[in-house]
Amino acid sequence: MPFCNVSSYQNGDGDESDINGTNIFYRTYGQGPVKVLLIIGFAGTHDSWGPQIKGLAGTVIPNDDESTAGDRSNESDEGDGVEVCAFDNRGMGRSSVPTKKSEYTTRIMAKDAIALMDHLGWKKAHVFGHSMGAMIACKLGAMVPNRVLSLALLNVTGGGYECIPKLDSQTLSIALRFLRAKSPVQRAAVDLDAHYSQEYLEEYVGDETRRSILYQQYVKSISSTGMQSKHGFDGQINACWTHEMSRKELGSICASRFHISVIHGRYDVIAQLCHAKKLAEKLYPSARLVELHGGHLVSHEKTEEVNAALLELIKASKSKISLHEWTNLHKKSKVCKATRISFCKTGSLSFMFKPLLLGILFFFYGLSVDVALLHGLWARRKFSREEKAAVRSLLEVDKPKKHQSCYFYPLCISD
User: Fold this and answer.
1) Domain segments of the chain: what residues?
2) Order of strands, edge to edge, in the sheet holding 148-154?
3) Contact indicator for 262, 300 with CB cutoff of 8 Å
4) In sequence order, what are the beta bridge partners of 86?
5) Are 355 and 170 in contact (CB under 8 A)?
């Protein structure tokens, strides 16, 4: 099986990840001079990129599959072919699971991706990320901009408070249903509403709705998938909550002038569209915003549109189209201002509202009962003894025994 020992490719700049022998499991697909690195999000595995691997490389059969070696004997790195690499982030799938939260940051995970590029002998690549993977891709773009040909950020936010989902009746309903869910059957029904738009779920495919078809697949997947370890789960949560892009880092990306696509589903109830718009505006004129009629898994819900946007991005990079021709944004824009205010001033949240908001966070990010972790959710404000007790009582009813690895990507089971 293909693994990359990241410590073999890192110079040791103070991160503990350089010396702990972390192994990253990866797979490559297709052949050609165009290199694409796919970075999956929270609790996802490499095969969560299945629809994009098929669309870009033309196959979902990995290059290390010996049964197809003869079929690739005539392939080469010439022409317009695409070679895709997808991998399991640290803390998930077949990759190593460091035990310290400090070993999980988007910067460290970006270094894993860079080490993998070195391992593959890729000097440059198109880097595409989804959700947490998009945060990692953005960090990578700032760290080694000279190695990025283009950047695609799918269903991305700026991390930290921007991980808090939109608060409306639909989100509250999903959160309450989640708190009552005690089995894969109940959980699958809730997950569908979090991952896809309602319109998509109610469409008919033959005699059945997509909801009915996906529901059966979700139940099977959640029941049979491996469980993500607590260390990996908590570590990836830490990476999301501690992620931020400084003005200097964003400036580094813009100065490199590679093309960027920010792709997002309008009905994403996990990552708010306004945060993606705000990030795209900060990356002007390099960025183009692509809004699609879909939810958080827009890469699955709108596969053709997403793949077309990615191929167009690759084409724009190759043809060196002017950034001002590429972007569909304006230099100055005031997006998401109200949302930022509402979540930055969290100290004013009422005592009764805090546990409800926590319930929503526990649904979308699977947070365990870790009061220390909650400390940073409200502007570093400490919770009172009474508030901590309320949080515990809220969670104790349906406290999960383990972390389910594929709650975000339930259709993707490791090989």
Assistant:
1) 3-163+237-326
2) 3-5, 23-29, 82-87, 34-39, 125-130, 148-154, 259-265, 287-292
3) no
4) 27, 38
5) no
Whose structure tokens read 């260390």?
Answer: 231
- 235, with CB counted inside 10 A (0-12, 13-18, 19+), is buried
Closest by Cα among 239, 155, 143 to 197: 155
Unique residue bearing structure tokens 């830490």: 238
Under 8 Å between Cβ of 42 and 235:
no
Q: Phi/psi class of residue 159: alpha, beta or left (left: φ > 0; alpha: ψ in -120 to 50)?
A: left
- State the Cα angle at 227 between 189 and 21, rounded to 5°: 140
Whole-angstrom Cα distance, residue 250 to residue 283? Answer: 7
CA dist 406 and 253 (Å) reads 32
Cβ atoms of residues 85 and 119 within 8 Å: no
DSSP secondary structure string, 283-352? TTTTEEEEEES--TTHHHHTHHHHHHHHHHHHHHHHHT--HHHH----SS---SHHHHHHHHTGGGS-TT
- Look at the block and give the residue holding tokens 């999000």: 41
Which 3-state string (H, E, C) describes 320-339?
A: CCCHHHHCCCCCCCCCCHHH
- Tens of pLDDT along the chain (415 residues) come to 799 999 888 765 555 555 568 999 999 999 999 999 999 998 788 988 999 999 999 999 999 987 665 555 445 555 689 999 999 999 988 999 999 999 999 999 999 999 999 999 999 999 999 999 999 999 999 999 999 999 999 999 999 889 887 777 778 787 777 667 677 788 778 878 888 999 999 999 999 999 999 999 878 776 655 556 889 988 998 999 999 999 999 999 999 999 999 999 999 988 999 999 999 999 999 999 999 999 999 999 999 999 999 999 999 999 999 999 999 998 765 444 433 333 433 334 444 444 455 555 555 544 443 444 444 444 434 445 554 554 454 444 344 444 443 434 433 333 3
CATH architecture of 3-163+237-326: 3-Layer(aba) Sandwich (3.40)
For 50-68, give the DSSP string.
HHHHHHHHS--S-TT-GGG
Give the span between the Cα atoms of 160 and 344, in whole angstroms: 11
DSSP-assigned letter for residue 37:
E
Q: HSE (CB half, 13 Å, CA atoms) of 324? A: 1
* pLDDT of res. 70: 53
